[in-house]
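Quick one: structure for this chain?
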Amino acid sequence: MDFTEAYSDTCSTVGLAAREGNVKVLRKLLKKGRSVDVADNRGWMPIHEAAYHNSVECLRMLIHAVDSSENYIKTKTFEGFCALHLAASQGHWKIVQILLEAGADPNATTLEETTPLFLGANVNCQALDKATPLFIAAQEGHIECVELLVSSGADPDLYCNEDNWQLPIHAAAQMGHTKILDLLIPLTNRVCDTGPDKVSPVYSAVFGGHEECLEMLLQHGYSPDAQMCLIFGFSSPMCMAFQKDCEFFGIVNILLKYGAQLNELHLAYCLKYEKFSVFRYFLKKGCPLAPWNHISEFISHAVKAQIKYKEWLPSLLLAGFDPLNLLCPSWIDSVSDDTLIFTLEFTNWRRLPPTIEKMLSTRASSSSWALQQHIASVPSLAHLCRLEIRSSLKPEHLRSDSFICQLPLPRSLHNYLLYAEVLRMNEVPELAVIQDGEISEAT
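Got it. Here's what it folds into:
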């Protein structure tokens, strides 16, 4: 060993050239016959310097400069690192390729039994679609891989798509991997549950139809209402649940169990998907009937469902919904005469706002004699009294047939307050009694 060519850090001139990637200097040194196997105080030779510092051309020159390149490639530092270990640890894939083609052992181990592959492994590396190893492991349900990646520093908050919302927790929830979800919940930043430009994993659990994952998230404090989800096009997890036919009732019950707030959009979706028993159930669970911010969307679905109005409209109006909200151009101009007459039964149709009277008059001029007669008739005193009594009741009382039946009135008046004769005249089928428990297919 020629110590006259060593620098203060004991690195040889050949090693320094390899470290700096200085091909010109290295070529001159090799022509002069300078040694390529001089080690420094760490046991590092020039090939280790070239591999670690990604000096590709210098590495090729060093390999070709020795008689037994395979043995030279396999030389190790004092800690047992060969050139392949060092290149892999830095993610220098080109160096790794050159070394493997030259005969480097991919299974070589350090003094700590570490292979190059364990070191070419960046736990937070991302594919072209930004998927991380942790995301893929969570998606595929490989619990041991998830545990290893997390213990090795994998970032559970590294977004795994271009829109910056999808995390490993979303993959686990959507695919139904409960053990992985349980592992990721305490590690994941909760901003994904509340951020306006993010997506709560509650949506992923609902989208996948996995009730156990959904309940697990809600048990740990995730919101059953979450934020509006522009990615999927839903305003709440409850709205998304309507897409999941086979798991629908279980998902709805879980969301309600953890306090999901009902609104008119949920009623609208009931009409859209013709889930009329759920419509009545939501009314019984206290879905607000005013004020509404999405009345136009509700009426849009209501118009399309008006053919089956006998299955939902009586429940809505008996629950105290103001029929004036329905008496708008889209409803008056689109529904059948029977549907319109039924709606008017819950009003004093001779004392409507002028704009509504004008629309009804226009509609009646081209409609059946029955509609014309109804609009022209004068409501009975009994009907006006019914409207007055019902208007004095609280919303929660109107939703309860049992409350009205317990009023200190004759049974005939109970029936009158419940519009029994109107329902009978319109052949409305007897509505199934909705219990306070969970909603089910049988309901």
